[in-house]
Amino acid sequence: MENLRTAMEELIQAKMPDQDWEYFQSKLIFKEFPKKHRLIEAGQTERYLSFIIKGIIRFYIPGPEHDTTVYMAFDNWFTSVYDSFVTQGPSYYSAETLQETSMLRISYSDLQDVYKNTSVGNLIGRRASEVLFVLKTQREISLLKLNAEERYLQLLKEQPHLIQNIPQKYLASYIGITPQALSRIRKRINA
User: Fold this and answer.
1) Given 1.10.10.570, 3.40.720.10, 2.60.120.10, 3.20.20.70, which CATH number is that of 2-145?
2) The Cyclic nucleotide-binding domain covers which part of the protein (predicted)?
Protein backbone atom coordinates (compact mmCIF):
# COMPACT_ATOMS: atom_id res chain seq x y z
CA MET A 1 0.00 0.00 0.00
CA GLU A 2 2.84 2.39 0.72
CA ASN A 3 4.13 2.01 -2.86
CA LEU A 4 0.72 3.09 -4.11
CA ARG A 5 0.60 6.10 -1.80
CA THR A 6 4.12 7.08 -2.84
CA ALA A 7 3.20 6.77 -6.53
CA MET A 8 0.11 8.91 -6.01
CA GLU A 9 2.05 11.57 -4.13
CA GLU A 10 4.68 11.62 -6.89
CA LEU A 11 1.88 11.98 -9.41
CA ILE A 12 0.32 14.99 -7.66
CA GLN A 13 3.71 16.30 -6.50
CA ALA A 14 2.37 16.81 -2.98
CA LYS A 15 1.66 14.93 0.24
CA MET A 16 -1.74 13.27 0.19
CA PRO A 17 -3.78 14.18 3.29
CA ASP A 18 -4.26 11.18 5.60
CA GLN A 19 -8.06 11.42 5.49
CA ASP A 20 -8.00 11.36 1.68
CA TRP A 21 -5.65 8.38 1.71
CA GLU A 22 -7.88 6.50 4.16
CA TYR A 23 -10.96 7.17 2.04
CA PHE A 24 -9.18 6.09 -1.15
CA GLN A 25 -7.67 3.01 0.50
CA SER A 26 -11.10 1.88 1.72
CA LYS A 27 -12.22 1.56 -1.92
CA LEU A 28 -9.35 -0.68 -3.07
CA ILE A 29 -9.64 -4.36 -3.92
CA PHE A 30 -6.56 -6.63 -3.87
CA LYS A 31 -6.43 -9.19 -6.72
CA GLU A 32 -3.91 -11.76 -7.90
CA PHE A 33 -3.85 -13.25 -11.38
CA PRO A 34 -1.84 -16.15 -12.84
CA LYS A 35 0.46 -15.84 -15.84
CA LYS A 36 -1.40 -15.56 -19.18
CA HIS A 37 -4.67 -14.48 -17.51
CA ARG A 38 -6.93 -12.42 -19.76
CA LEU A 39 -7.95 -9.35 -17.78
CA ILE A 40 -10.21 -7.93 -20.47
CA GLU A 41 -11.19 -8.90 -24.01
CA ALA A 42 -11.61 -6.44 -26.87
CA GLY A 43 -15.27 -5.44 -26.91
CA GLN A 44 -15.69 -5.62 -23.13
CA THR A 45 -15.84 -2.54 -20.92
CA GLU A 46 -12.97 -1.78 -18.54
CA ARG A 47 -14.42 -1.53 -15.04
CA TYR A 48 -11.21 -0.95 -13.02
CA LEU A 49 -8.25 1.32 -12.69
CA SER A 50 -5.44 -0.75 -11.22
CA PHE A 51 -2.07 -0.30 -9.58
CA ILE A 52 0.36 -3.13 -10.32
CA ILE A 53 2.13 -4.28 -7.18
CA LYS A 54 4.06 -6.97 -9.02
CA GLY A 55 3.82 -8.26 -12.57
CA ILE A 56 3.60 -7.33 -16.23
CA ILE A 57 0.50 -6.68 -18.30
CA ARG A 58 0.40 -6.59 -22.09
CA PHE A 59 -2.27 -4.57 -23.92
CA TYR A 60 -2.88 -5.62 -27.50
CA ILE A 61 -5.24 -5.44 -30.43
CA PRO A 62 -6.19 -8.98 -31.44
CA GLY A 63 -5.72 -9.76 -35.11
CA PRO A 64 -6.66 -12.70 -37.35
CA GLU A 65 -3.02 -13.70 -37.93
CA HIS A 66 -1.17 -11.93 -35.13
CA ASP A 67 -1.82 -9.54 -32.27
CA THR A 68 -0.45 -5.99 -32.17
CA THR A 69 1.03 -5.08 -28.81
CA VAL A 70 0.29 -1.44 -28.03
CA TYR A 71 1.41 -1.03 -24.43
CA MET A 72 3.10 -2.79 -21.51
CA ALA A 73 2.59 -2.02 -17.82
CA PHE A 74 4.94 -2.97 -14.97
CA ASP A 75 5.36 -2.97 -11.19
CA ASN A 76 4.47 0.16 -9.26
CA TRP A 77 2.41 1.82 -11.94
CA PHE A 78 -1.24 2.52 -12.72
CA THR A 79 -2.87 0.63 -15.53
CA SER A 80 -6.16 0.22 -17.30
CA VAL A 81 -7.67 0.11 -20.76
CA TYR A 82 -8.06 3.76 -19.99
CA ASP A 83 -10.17 4.95 -22.92
CA SER A 84 -12.73 2.24 -22.15
CA PHE A 85 -12.52 3.01 -18.42
CA VAL A 86 -13.12 6.74 -18.89
CA THR A 87 -15.97 6.36 -21.40
CA GLN A 88 -17.35 3.14 -19.90
CA GLY A 89 -17.64 1.95 -23.49
CA PRO A 90 -16.25 -1.11 -25.26
CA SER A 91 -12.50 -1.59 -25.39
CA TYR A 92 -10.52 -1.86 -28.61
CA TYR A 93 -7.79 -3.73 -26.72
CA SER A 94 -7.39 -6.95 -24.84
CA ALA A 95 -5.12 -7.18 -21.81
CA GLU A 96 -3.34 -10.19 -20.33
CA THR A 97 -0.77 -10.86 -17.65
CA LEU A 98 2.66 -11.98 -18.86
CA GLN A 99 3.62 -13.26 -15.42
CA GLU A 100 1.90 -13.75 -12.09
CA THR A 101 0.49 -10.36 -11.26
CA SER A 102 -0.88 -8.79 -8.10
CA MET A 103 -2.65 -5.45 -8.09
CA LEU A 104 -4.86 -3.07 -6.21
CA ARG A 105 -8.00 -2.08 -8.12
CA ILE A 106 -10.67 0.55 -7.83
CA SER A 107 -13.95 0.45 -9.72
CA TYR A 108 -15.15 3.28 -11.93
CA SER A 109 -17.97 4.23 -9.55
CA ASP A 110 -15.70 4.11 -6.49
CA LEU A 111 -13.16 6.34 -8.25
CA GLN A 112 -15.93 8.83 -9.02
CA ASP A 113 -16.69 8.86 -5.26
CA VAL A 114 -13.01 9.52 -4.51
CA TYR A 115 -13.05 12.44 -6.96
CA LYS A 116 -16.10 13.92 -5.22
CA ASN A 117 -15.20 13.24 -1.59
CA THR A 118 -11.49 13.99 -1.29
CA SER A 119 -9.51 17.19 -1.58
CA VAL A 120 -6.98 15.72 -4.05
CA GLY A 121 -9.17 13.30 -6.02
CA ASN A 122 -9.65 15.52 -9.06
CA LEU A 123 -5.97 16.43 -9.08
CA ILE A 124 -5.03 12.74 -9.09
CA GLY A 125 -7.41 12.07 -11.99
CA ARG A 126 -6.18 15.04 -13.99
CA ARG A 127 -2.48 14.26 -13.46
CA ALA A 128 -2.97 10.57 -14.30
CA SER A 129 -4.74 11.55 -17.53
CA GLU A 130 -1.97 13.99 -18.41
CA VAL A 131 0.74 11.37 -17.87
CA LEU A 132 -1.13 8.79 -19.94
CA PHE A 133 -1.67 11.34 -22.72
CA VAL A 134 2.03 12.22 -22.85
CA LEU A 135 3.08 8.54 -22.91
CA LYS A 136 0.60 7.79 -25.69
CA THR A 137 1.77 10.80 -27.71
CA GLN A 138 5.43 9.84 -27.30
CA ARG A 139 4.68 6.32 -28.49
CA GLU A 140 2.78 7.59 -31.54
CA ILE A 141 5.62 9.96 -32.45
CA SER A 142 8.13 7.14 -32.06
CA LEU A 143 6.14 4.90 -34.41
CA LEU A 144 5.80 7.67 -37.00
CA LYS A 145 9.25 9.26 -36.78
CA LEU A 146 11.74 6.49 -35.97
CA ASN A 147 12.68 3.42 -37.96
CA ALA A 148 12.54 -0.02 -36.32
CA GLU A 149 16.19 -0.03 -35.23
CA GLU A 150 15.88 3.45 -33.73
CA ARG A 151 12.73 2.38 -31.85
CA TYR A 152 14.58 -0.67 -30.48
CA LEU A 153 17.58 1.45 -29.41
CA GLN A 154 15.21 3.91 -27.77
CA LEU A 155 13.64 1.04 -25.80
CA LEU A 156 17.08 -0.18 -24.74
CA LYS A 157 17.87 3.28 -23.41
CA GLU A 158 14.53 4.27 -21.86
CA GLN A 159 12.91 0.97 -20.86
CA PRO A 160 15.51 -1.79 -20.47
CA HIS A 161 13.03 -3.85 -18.41
CA LEU A 162 11.02 -4.36 -21.61
CA ILE A 163 14.00 -6.02 -23.29
CA GLN A 164 14.75 -8.24 -20.29
CA ASN A 165 11.26 -9.40 -19.32
CA ILE A 166 9.15 -9.52 -22.48
CA PRO A 167 9.09 -12.45 -24.94
CA GLN A 168 10.62 -11.47 -28.29
CA LYS A 169 7.36 -11.91 -30.24
CA TYR A 170 5.59 -9.34 -28.04
CA LEU A 171 8.56 -6.99 -28.08
CA ALA A 172 8.68 -7.15 -31.88
CA SER A 173 4.96 -6.45 -32.08
CA TYR A 174 5.36 -3.47 -29.73
CA ILE A 175 8.07 -2.03 -31.98
CA GLY A 176 5.93 -2.74 -35.03
CA ILE A 177 8.04 -5.41 -36.73
CA THR A 178 8.24 -9.19 -37.05
CA PRO A 179 10.24 -11.33 -34.58
CA GLN A 180 12.62 -12.18 -37.46
CA ALA A 181 13.30 -8.49 -38.15
CA LEU A 182 13.93 -7.94 -34.44
CA SER A 183 16.46 -10.81 -34.45
CA ARG A 184 18.30 -9.19 -37.37
CA ILE A 185 18.38 -5.82 -35.56
CA ARG A 186 19.72 -7.45 -32.39
CA LYS A 187 22.44 -9.29 -34.35
CA ARG A 188 23.48 -6.10 -36.15
CA ILE A 189 23.65 -4.11 -32.89
CA ASN A 190 25.57 -6.82 -31.01
CA ALA A 191 28.01 -7.50 -33.86
Assistant:
1) 2.60.120.10
2) 31-117
